[in-house]
Amino acid sequence: MAARSIRRVEVLINEALAGVMDIETDGLSPREHVTFTYADSWMSAAEAFEVSPELPLRRGPQRPTQGRELFGSFQDASPDDWGKKLLFEELRQQALAKGAGRIPPTGEAGYLLLVNDETRQGALRFRENGQFLSSWGRGAGIRDLRALSEEARLFAETGEVKEENSLLMGAGSSPGGAQPKAWVRDDDGSMLLAKFPKTSDVGNVQLWEMVAIRLQQRAGIRVAESRLMPLSEFSHIFLTRRFDRDGDRRIPYMSVRTALQLDTYSHPDYVKIASEVAHISAEPVQDANEMFSRAALIAMVNNTDDHMRNHGLLRTNRGWRLSPSFDVNPVPAGTSDTPLTPHGGLFDRDVRDLLEFADAFRLTRDAAIRRLQQVASAISRWREEALSLGAEPESLAYMTKAFEGENAKRVASLAPAPAVIDMGGSTTPAPPKSHGDVWVPEHTRAGKLVRGHFRRRS
Ligand SMILES: Nc1ncnc2c1ncn2[C@@H]1O[C@H](COP(=O)(O)OP(=O)(O)OP(=O)(O)O)[C@@H](O)[C@H]1O
Ligand SMILES: [Mg+2]
């Protein structure tokens, strides 16, 4: 006969105790009653911040928002579809090994605590009876990528992981998202997120995610350093450097869904997102400007999976900042749920609509036009980027619709059109201040390198 039980778990941000989480369960169902109570030491610390936006810094137990099982940033540190499937398999195997006859009911907090402590998203850590949760499973390195990818494929096909091959369990169950993936250590010890192909993928999805990284760099959008590892003639693993770690230090992270306290099914428009991000950010102008370029590029490569967990924020010493952009996947067909502007269409996201709301992105109309042109100019290089990454020439025809939709023509027809210089990398020149500005190419002056820049016409 199962009994009610309460687990008391310490919640830490890096090494600092932030509070305690109590999880009450009835032992019969996955239902959990969760509370969080700040530690006095955290509330009086100079660097204290709300561990999730719905948890104001005050004494006493606090509950998740009505209708939610868990606090937003705790959900961001939890596994999603992919990780939960793997953890469920781990629970199944443990139950079988114990001869338990059934899998223990596990709610959201239960899954959160099963995640590997070393690799969990963001800076939240959980400690019970002096032990950090969880520590089962082996870590993986880049040399394990082929084996991990093969395990991921088998798991997708059979729904089972062989116990003797449990590398994927340890490395693959903590990242969020729905696609097969794992955290691996690079040769220098830093962590990378590896995204694997799956049988149902149409085309080389990982290669096109890498193309999107290159185009974003050209458009001046911040991305994590990323690369491809060839797997077969037609497939790759996409590798991207972990942005919520600085050596061993963990950087607090929350999704835009958490920051805006949205429920799972909310899809605010980009004007609203930019305004809210500017409100939260330690660098409101830079982050709102960047949100403009991201929104434009997302629409112009038809990235339809731009839900609110695909935008995130990192906590720096000065406060929250937009994280590097991630999970941008160009697709030739499909519809996003996130409009560009209030009342903006979804079937055809017209990037010119953003211009009416340039203020919300902290841009003048002219600066907004220049950004659209910079994004369009970057995207126009999609073929050469894809080919240089090893795309099959035949796949270009299929992907053309992703990159050469109506928006490319619309931006081309915008007037006035100041020159846009594509630097082909993450170093993007400051945009010209007025349409009359002239471009001075890179040159040397008094023996020093002067990078290309715009200069006012004399
Ligand atoms: N470079 C990175 N560094 C740290 N965390 C990352 C990085 N890239 C992604 N993440 C985190 O991992 C999660 C999953 O990654 P990603 O969104 O790329 O996967 P996905 O499976 O394609 O997602 P979806 O379910 O949206 O399709 C993200 O929501 C984000 O929290
Ligand atoms: Mg995602």
Structural write-up:
- This protein has 458 residues and is of the alpha+beta class.
- The protein folds into four domains: 5-133, no CATH class; 142-241, 2-Layer Sandwich (Phosphorylase Kinase, domain 1), CATH 3.30.200; 253-412, Phosphatidylinositol 3-kinase Catalytic Subunit, Chain A, Domain 5 (Orthogonal Bundle), CATH 1.10.1070; 420-455, no CATH class.
- Helix content is 31%, strand content 19%.
- It has 14 helices and 19 strands.
- It has helices at 40-43, 72-76, 81-98, 108-114, 145-158, 167-172, 205-218, 256-259, 270-280, 284-300, 365-379, 382-388, 393-403, 406-412, and strands at residues 5-13, 16-25, 32-38, 61-62, 124-128, 131-133, 181-185, 191-195, 226-230, 236-241, 245-246, 249-250, 253-255, 312-316, 319-322, 438-440, 443-445, 448-450, 453-455.
- It has a six-stranded antiparallel β-sheet. Strands 7-8-10-9 form a four-stranded antiparallel β-sheet, sandwiched between helices. A three-stranded antiparallel β-sheet has the order 13-14-15.
- The chain is globular, with a radius of gyration of 24 Å.
- Residues 420-428 have low confidence and may be disordered.
- The protein binds adenosine-5'-triphosphate and magnesium ion (MG).
- Magnesium ion is lined by residues 177, 309-310, 327.
